[in-house]
UniProtKB/TrEMBL annotation:
Belongs to the TrpC family. CDD domains: IGPS (cd00331). It catalyses: 1-(2-carboxyphenylamino)-1-deoxy-D-ribulose 5-phosphate + H(+) = (1S,2R)-1-C-(indol-3-yl)glycerol 3-phosphate + CO2 + H2O. This is Indole-3-glycerol phosphate synthase. The keyword Membrane does not apply. The gene is trpC. It comes from Halorussus aquaticus. The keyword Amino-acid biosynthesis applies. Residues 30-240 form the Indole-3-glycerol phosphate synthase domain.
Length: 271
């Protein structure tokens, strides 16, 4: 595992919390997963930008928390054209829970990603999901073992990387789904050029997901043109980030969540 001194303080705190979290009770899960690549491909065929919309109560980089029911939010995102969903199950810094994920997955028919910070195999058994996030920088040399353990349970592991070296590790670990995080976990700076730099170095048969910093239809088009098969979007949907130069925020409501999702999934036709 990478030294937490290389991480921003907020991220190091997340990692310490993940390491200290207790193991779930019971044995290994067995998951009948919905295919994320197939869902992203269907969205493409339908003319939609393949958005993975994130049910995100809060985060260290946002203000306040949201009390809206996760299932209602998820249903609104799907109504807006989301190809898949991401649900936070990390409780200490993001206000998520395994129960929220369980409820959402039961309510929708699209693939659901478990957004958490898994650092050891037993934590895979916390809750069933279709896709599970594995952050290369967090798990270090254990990445290959965790990818294999996730696949043995039926999960589709999405391995998150930030640079070419991490991409190489992910490919060597057998990852078929790779997310490129535009946010630098050391400085918390976001730069869409990160995906544009890393994506061309990925094998053609890998499904690539662009993560972080996608706030407008222009950003969505930019990431798709750079080779993204899917876009993981949280704040631009949950917070109603405006496209105006002032960066103002729209009124937060369930209808706003639908419209924000639709705005991104229809980015190809909005010039």
């Amino acid at each position: 595992m990478n030294d937490s001194e290389e991480l921003a303080p907020a991220v190091a705190s997340i990692l310490r919390s993940a390491e200290a979290r207790g193991d779930p009770e019971g044995g290994p899960l067995s998951v009948d997963a919905r295919s994320l690549p197939a869902a992203l491909s269907r969205a493409e065929t339908d003319g939609r930008v393949p958005v993975i919309a994130e049910v995100k109560p809060t985060s260290p980089t946002t203000d306040g928390t949201r009390d809206a029911d996760p299932v209602e939010l998820a249903e609104r995102m799907v109504a807006g054209g989301a190809a898949a969903l991401s649900v936070l199950s990390e409780p200490d810094h993001f206000g998520g829970s395994p129960e929220n994920l369980r409820r959402v997955r039961e309510a929708v028919d699209v693939p659901v990603l478990r957004k958490d910070f898994v650092v050891r195999e037993s934590q895979l058994d916390t809750v069933a999901a279709d896709v599970v996030l594995l952050i290369a920088r967090f798990v270090g040399e254990d990445l290959g073992d965790l990818v294999a353990a996730a696949e043995e349970r039926g999960f589709q592991p999405l391995v998150e990387v930030h640079d070419a070296a991490e991409l190489e590790r992910a490919v060597a670990a057998g990852a078929e789904l790779i997310g490129v995080n535009n946010r630098d976990l050391a400085k918390l700076e976001v730069d869409l050029e990160t995906f544009e730099t890393v994506a061309p170095q990925a094998p053609d048969d890998v499904t690539l997901v662009a993560e972080s910093g996608i706030g407008s239809p222009d950003d969505a088009r930019r990431m798709v043109e750079a080779g993204a098969d899917g876009l993981l979007v949280g704040s631009a949907i949950m917070d109603g980030v405006s496209e105006s130069p002032s960066g103002g925020r729209g009124a937060e409501s369930l209808e706003t969540v639908t419209e924000n999702t639709r705005r991104l999934t229809r980015a190809r036709t909005q010039r």
